[in-house]
Design brief:
Elements lengths: L5 E9 L7 E9 L1 H4 L5 E7 L8 E2 L7 E2 L25 E5 L6 E5 L3 E6 L13 E8 L27 E3 L4 E2 L5 E2 L15 E7 L3 E7 L9
Antiparallel strand pairs: 1-2, 1-9, 2-3, 3-4, 5-8, 6-7, 7-8, 10-14, 11-12, 13-14
């Protein structure tokens, strides 16, 4: 839909949503307004004042410093998972350099994309106080009904592997830069009839969740 987007990402947060929120974000998104097409694209975002005056996507303002010449921010991701077919993952890791204080991001197993300089942030100067994973859409309520913009695969999490989108191997980076399982893991859906989430744990995926949905449907008018 025009003026809408759908994304899946992780957030590193510190501060208050009332005005001084610091946020580092990365994942994949479909945004016709931003890119001029419906391709699934790798993106980053940051803000230091709750999305008011600071921050931007990718390299559209000074902020994120890209050091890799192998992968472009905003590039189309390929191949994509197919409904009932082969599933593909992307791996994103964000960690803090304890000496310089910069926040670094890697994509895949061996590609360090770049970093957010410590000077961009106030509340994220020391650490994130919350980490979130999930999906988000813009609902412009076309025709006075809920948007049909899909989240994830466009299918509910109850359909499971090969049909619903998922996050797996959820981990956080501790103060010693070691990976740890997340604590106090909670789930939230603004309207489960439109988009939902189901979490779990197993030995292969660790902590994981399925998420998403079609948006507009008989139960989501």
């Amino acid at each position: 839909m025009p003026n809408e987007f759908s994304l899946s990402q992780l957030w590193l947060l510190a501060g208050s949503f009332e005005g001084d929120l610091n946020s580092i974000e990365a994942g994949w998104q479909v945004s016709p307004d931003l890119y001029g097409d419906n391709n699934t694209r790798l993106f980053t975002y940051w803000t230091s004042d709750a999305y008011q005056a600071t921050g931007c996507y990718n390299l559209l303002c000074s902020g994120f410093v890209q050091i890799s010449d192998q992968i472009a921010l905003g590039a189309t991701i390929s191949p994509l998972s197919g409904y009932g077919g082969r599933q593909f993952d992307i791996d994103i890791l964000i960690w803090k350099d304890p000496r310089a204080g910069n926040w670094w991001m890697s994509f895949g197993q061996n590609c360090v994309l770049g970093y957010w300089p410590a000077a961009l942030f106030t509340n994220l100067a020391e650490a994130a106080t919350m980490v979130e994973w999930g999906g988000e859409v813009v609902n412009s309520e076309p025709g006075s009904r809920h948007t049909s913009t899909q989240m994830g695969s466009g299918h509910f999490p109850s359909e499971g592997f090969g049909r619903a989108s998922y996050f797996s191997n959820l981990q956080i980076v501790d103060a010693s830069n070691n990976l740890q399982p997340p604590g106090n893991l909670n789930t939230f859906s603004e309207n489960a009839a439109c988009y939902d989430v189901e979490n779990g744990y197993n030995s292969e995926w660790g902590y994981y969740f399925y998420y998403g949905g079609p948006g507009y449907n008989d139960r989501c008018p």
